[in-house]
Amino acid sequence: MNAAKPNAETAQPAPRKKGTNAPRIRLTTSQIRLTVSALGARMCALELYEDSVPNGTNIAIGLSDDDAYMAQDSYIGAVCGRYANRIENSRYCDESGAEIRLVANEGTTHLHGGIDGFDKRIWAITAQSERSVSFTLTSPDGDQGYPGTLVTTATYSIVDENRLRLEITATCDQACPVNMTSHAYWNLTGKFDQTASNHILQIDADHWLPVDDKLIPLDKPKSVNGTGYDFRNPQRVADMLPNATQGFDHNFCLNGDRGTLRQIATLSDPESGRSMKLFSTEAGLQFYLSQHFNDAMKTENGMSLHPSGGIALEPQTYPNSPNRPDFPRPWLKPGETYRHLIEWEFY
After folding, report:
1. Which residues of 180-204 are buried (b: 16+ CB within 10 A; e: fewer)?
2. CA distances (Å), origin 240, targets 55, 201, 246, 248, 252
3. Angstrom distance (rounded) from CA 48 to CA 34
4. In the chain, where the domains are located
5. Taking a C-beta distance cutoff of 8 angstroms, is the pair 200, 240 a contact?
6. 179 and 113 in contact (C-beta within 8 Å)?
């Protein structure tokens, strides 16, 4: 493909029209083919090429079209922002002590950036080549309650034949909390009408965050030792469920230094022999075994999603960190650049 490089500051995508899909881009190697969309800078499919399946097997859940993504409101595959995960009571105090009120979209809670989060926006394609594509979005001052104009770019790139990178950067002209991630859902069997709970998961985390009934973290991080949240060694997800007293929609406090790209998790499927290594520069990992998929949610080939058909592994800072000074810093100030690297390696 020829490079297309409009100015990132001024490029404005056309508004979304019902019944049409936003532009989609494919990046291909000998082992993988990635399909991404300008709607939410979203991963729509990740196909693996194998000797036994020469036409490829899609392991990243995607819906039939853009109308389905908008109707189902499940963040599938999207880049979530300005703040992924939850902020309690849709409010926080800035560093001067002034209260900032955000848009609530999960009861009284602000989730994944609000009612009109980045997952619902058409991002501008600001750079494109055979091995990468960049999407850029401008979020104006007051957007969903956040102060300042924020400009963010999400770049998908092929770094090896079996390795994919997502780099998310942002700047803002006023201080605000920023926490962005990929909300991809994985089922390594490629059979999205079947549960993903038979997958084997390993997470490099000694602690996790128990939550209240609104999924807001309680108190301090707790040791995973002796709980259903101990994935320090590879564990079958279904085997851990009986001792996972709150199910699986929790932040794991990752080992290693924030800001350093490191392996944080491994997901594998005994049935197919496929596996995925996950790398990130962030402090936390939200692990969610889907529970809300339903028959109305269909893939491009018409397959209905199993309620627990996907596993979301979302690297990010800790939930509700704008209200928790004991949690990793979420603040982006003028003159600073937010940068989050995520990489996936497939076998």
Report:
1. bbbbbbbbbbbbbebbbbbbbbbbb
2. 34, 10, 11, 10, 15
3. 9
4. 24-198+279-346
5. no
6. no
What type of residue is 326? D
Closest CA to 44 of 26, 62, 29: 62
CATH 1.20.1530.20 assigned to domain 24-198+279-346? The reply is: no
DSSP state of 304: B
Q: Identify the DSSP state of 39.
A: B
**What's at 106, amino acid-wise?**
E
- Show the tokens assigned to 103: 């848009």
What angle is formed at CA 342 by the lines to CA 20 and CA 224, rounded to 5 degrees? 115
SS3 337: coil
- The per-residue pLDDT for range 164-218, each reduced to its tens digit, is 999 999 999 999 999 999 999 999 999 999 999 999 999 999 999 999 999 999 9
Query: What residues are labeled active site?
Result: 183, 314
Residue matched to tokens 């993903």: 196
3-state helix, strand, coil in the chain (%, to 5): 5, 40, 55
Cβ neighbours of 18 (radius 10 Å): 7
Give the chain's radius of gyration (CA, Å): 19
Burial of 300 from C-beta contacts in 10 A (0-12 / 13-18 / 19+): middle
Residue with tokens 């996972």: 244
Residue 172 has, within 13 A of its CA and on its CB side, a CA count of: 22
C-alpha span between 140 and 143 (Å, rounded): 6
Mean pLDDT value across residues 140-144: 98
Tokens of 328: 């990793």
Contact between residue 142 and residue 324 where contact means Cβ atoms under 8 Å apart: no
Using omega within 30 degrees of 0 as the cis cutoff, is the peptide bond preceding 82 cis?
A: yes
Q: What is the pTM of this model?
A: 0.94
| DSSP result, 322-345 | GG-TTSPP-EE-TT--EEEEEEEE
What type of residue is 186?
A: W
Phi, psi for 142 (deg, rounded to 5)? 90, -5
What is the rounded distance in angstroms from the CA atom of residue 62 to the CA atom of residue 55?
18
